[in-house]
Amino acid sequence: MASDTGQRNTILLVGAAVLGLVVVDRAFNGEVTPASKPTPVASPPATKPAGPKPQLLMIRAEREVRAILRDPESAKFSDMSVRTSPAVAVCGYVNSKNGFGGMTGKQRFISGAVTAVEDQLGVGEMDELWGKVCG
User: Of the candidates 117, 121, 124, which has an alpha carbon nearest to the alpha carbon of residue 94?
Assistant: First the structure.
């Protein structure tokens, strides 16, 4: 049994040596070419990391504002813009029906980490927030 293992190892060793010689011979005779180097590709210019697209931010803002409103289906949005400083937020106006079925008139809203509509805040609070975020 020991001789079978030794004989098998000898055959594998001889086979590997023959294969190595064939590869070396072909390389010297030009039949085998080394792998070609990849062609360098120009890197794209450095840009700021892409954040969420403005249109997607506006869609999210509309959804979050509608969740606050008494009659979400009646909401009409206008003058929306995406701000990136001091934080990413969407500023705009919404007009929707109130509890009596009448339209509220344009109200400011801000949607970012938190969403707020003008009539939910105390006097002067929206003015202060609007000035900091949307101003």
Answer: 117
